[in-house]
Amino acid sequence: MKIIKKTLKWFLYFLLIPLSYLLVSLLFASITIDRKAATSSEEKSIYLSTNGVHLDIVIPKENLDPLLLKDLLNTATDHYLSFGWGDENFYVNTPTWGDLTFSNAFRALFLKSSTLLHVTRYSAVRTEWVEVKVSASELQKLNTYIHQTFTRTTNGSNILLENQGYSSLDNFYKSNGSYSCFNTCNSWVNVGFKESGIKSCLWTPFDFGLLNKHE
């Protein structure tokens, strides 16, 4: 009987951890960090894109800082570039949700690991993207935030992973930071918005936290 009670107690403890995480996540995601006063009346469009779980920041190529754009593969027909950040092992070995394994998910959420920036190129706006209006100064800060996420060689060049894209329109680059359940792909986007003065969440590990602020 004592063994059963002890087992039940530990089961409840373990159950409490994910429940607490979910409750804190929902609470913090509901807290809005309002947009800071814009220093310019000029507004430009950026976009939020999601695959249902993972957020990307989409920026028109004409609005990308030359320092950010210069080392990114692109062609004349690419007019929008999206940026997503995440765990390297998960990105490379889980191209579709059908490839998801418990091992890959566990390593991404709980073990320190290297990360990548995923850059995808588009020729036109997608109807499912969520438009976000930003000032010129906010846009510049967001460009700087993304630029500083790339890991670079000693001569300042991005580090491209050869032949690792999902298609001919995307590429992976080495990036800074370590992914975890507290620092997710969506947290990375949210921090970028927060540091740029754009409306954001206090913290969110989920895509809907930030999407709800801008839809």
Fold and architecture overview:
The protein is an alpha+beta fold. It has seven helices and nine strands, in the order αβββαβααββαββαβα. A seven-stranded antiparallel β-sheet has the order 6-2-3-4-5-8-7. β2 (43-50) and β3 form a beta hairpin. The protein is globular, with a radius of gyration of 19 Å. It starts with a helix and ends with a helix. The model has no long low-confidence stretch (mean pLDDT 87).
Give the number of DSSP strands.
9
Radius of gyration: 19 Å
* Helix percentage: 25-40%
Helix and strand pattern: HEEEHEHHEEHEEHEH
Low-confidence segments: none
Major β-sheet strand ordering: 6-2-3-4-5-8-7
Number of helices: 7
Q: What is the typical, i.e. mean, pLDDT?
A: 87
Q: What is the end-to-end distance?
A: 53 Å
Strand pairing plus helix content: what structural class? alpha+beta
Question: What's the main sheet like?
Answer: 7 strands, antiparallel
Beta percentage is 15-25%
Multimeric organization = single chain
Shape call: globular
Task: Pick out its properties.
two-stranded antiparallel ribbon; 22% strand; seven-stranded antiparallel β-sheet; globular; alpha+beta; 215 residues
Please render the helix and strand layout as text.
Layout: H1 2-30, E1 32-33, E2 43-50, E3 55-60, H2 66-69, E4 80-87, H3 88-93, H4 102-110, E5 115-122, E6 130-135, H5 136-149, E7 160-161, E8 170-175, H6 185-195, E9 200-201, H7 207-214
Antiparallel strand pairs: 1-9, 2-3, 2-6, 3-4, 4-5, 5-8, 7-8
